[in-house]
Amino acid sequence: MSLMGVDIGSSGCKVAIYLVDGALISTESTTYSVTMPGPGLFELDSRQVLDAVYTAMRTVVKRAGSDNRYLHDPLKAVSFGSFSEAMVPVSSHGEILGPSIFSHDQRGKYAVKRFNRIGQKAFYKINPNILGYSYSYPKLVWYRESAPDFNTKVWKYLNWSDFLTFQLTGEAATTYGHANRTLLFDLWKEKWSDELLEVGGVERRVLADLIPSGITMGYVKKEISASLGFPEDVLVISGGHDQCMNALGAGAISGGSSVTGIGTFECTTLVFDDIPDPDLMLGLKLGIEHHTAPGKYVTFIYNQGGSVQTWFMQAFTQDLIKEGVSEREILNRLTDEAPNKPGDVVFLPFLEPSGAPVFLPEGRGCFFGIGTGTDRGALYRALLEGESMFFLEAFEELSKNGLSITSVRATGGGSRSDLWLQIKADILQRPVHRVQHWESGTVGAAIAAGLATGVYVSLEEAVGIFSGTDASFFPRKEFTDVYARLYKMYKNGLGLISSREWRD
Prior knowledge:
This protein has 2 domains: 2-302 and 436-465, ATPase, nucleotide binding domain (Nucleotidyltransferase, domain 5, 2-Layer Sandwich); 307-403 and 418-434 and 472-502, Nucleotidyltransferase, domain 5, CATH 3.30.420. Helix content is 38%, strand content 21%. The protein contains 19 helices and 23 strands. A 7-stranded mixed β-sheet has the order 17-18-16-15-21-22-23. A 6-stranded mixed β-sheet has the order 3-2-1-5-14-13. A hairpin with a 3-residue loop joins strand 1 (2-8) and strand 2 (12-19). Helix 10 (242-250) packs across helix 17 (440-452), helix 14 packs across helix 15 and helix 17 (440-452) packs antiparallel against helix 18 (459-466). The model has no long low-confidence stretch (mean pLDDT 94).
């Protein structure tokens, strides 16, 4: 038999079919983009995203049909991982009622101040996240208070992986990890918090019931199964937050292990065997969330990743874009143009609101140290270096508090860049290993599907089947001193843009 894993990201989705022995049968990706209908507004076209996911699913099934291994081992189960925060408004009949408001959208941001009545520390003991407007909660308030007529038509607001599960099975539920990203979930009690719902002003009726990741939700509905080219009796397994799925697929399932996914955002996911000390984690400005691996917990260090590359291409490679050169080829050309050693330019990677643990507002990114001899290649290398320095700062703070990350397991599209991974090894002063299946989000979803259906006896067995290293990169001593100097410049620059002169 075979298993399908679906990874729904903020700018595109990836779908893959794997045999139970870990062999990749077929894979496909599709893209979409966030739109800006007005100042401070960011949306995804819900129907466009759904169509993109379905297109990728149909394509991998059709392509797999030409593989004799798939014919002998047809699809058994599917599971979905997806980015969090953005939710789809749906009717009880499964009708999409509107766009999916993206995390950076500022609608309802004022509502976060309501939790000040509780205080950050007391709030954290219920929902262990650092308060901010990027979560789902402010958008739910906006729907209720600024679009009440629309809100009355909504049956549930569902996160993307939960929404796809609902589309395929008719069963609506939300996994713990996604619920945590609303700011309304009680991590310890594993239920919606009555206190936070009341203080925040959100109706319980629009939130789905809660379930853990990795449980059977039902069979794919016959009409959808036929449209996707599925065999009969394909099971759907509850998925989860894409970063957790990525960690599962990369084998980060035990306390102290970690994985760094380099996609639109770069996120290092650190795993805990139990709920870590909330006072320590709050002091580090890091959240706590359920892992998709049963009984485990995670925290995230994250910031812009591939999105800064996208910005750079739009700003500095318009000549190539107008020629119709593909994004992959543009990145290859930039890599060729980049110097083979660090220079004097430093980049601060804060083009959008930064993630944990810095939490800077958007629009504070910059290059400094530019001279008349600075060319596009030098700027591109500095961009990759600055993006990596963000994580060095966080890793150093973790180490001071007994949470050391001794090596980096790299996954995602960005991990295909040898230049970027070597820069990370040199800056982080840690070995960096690119995993065998670099699209680990689809692997994690496939593992979840296999565990729930009894294909794998244990989590350890499943992870062992998919484990492996594609390439390794080690720190080069000749660049230690120059990166120490550049990192000092980075810290000084960060101090400036964090200072009173730059505050909103």
